[in-house]
Please model this.
Amino acid sequence: MNYSFHIISLLSAVAFFSALAEPADADYVDPDYAAHHCARQKGDVRACCDDMLEGTKSEVQQCIKLVPGVRKKLAEEKAARAAAKKAKAAADTSNTGASPTSPDQPDSGGKGLRGSWTTEFGTTMVIEQNNPFRARFNLKDGRMVGTLQDGTMDGLWIQSSSKSKCPEEREGSFYWGKIRLTFSGNTYTGSWGYCDEEASKTMKPGKRL
Model:
């Protein structure tokens, strides 16, 4: 039996089907694709199109001509999304009967406080709910609960452990204390204490991230 003949035939078949599976020009980029890419770039349009299309003169010119139209369409889509977001916010305000509040300015309900803030421990406090106040910080399963009024939160901090164990359990832990945070724009000041002692330990000011 001629084994060499069969091996050569098998290799030829593999090469044939591999050629079918691979596009003849896998790296080809058309002017429309290049225009959409370059429309999002801040640099020179001609240089971008030339780089994307590797110097094919007619296709580079076509890419350059397409870019203004693509940019206009992208701007219209962005404006439409912004208008839809604004309309939804207005509808939500109308439904709740609340007046709009700047996200950077706290009020009695603390509408602008949700989000991430720095703390003196180098951790992040994430305010999840305004009133009643709910926040978490990434130190020993840290939490805060309390009441927010006129930009000031009075409540408790709670951890899974701390230097001082309290005689009674609060919020599912024996490690807690009083805390007061006063917010002003994008910053806050605060004070805290262990267990039932007054919140007399001053905290370093924090800020919005």
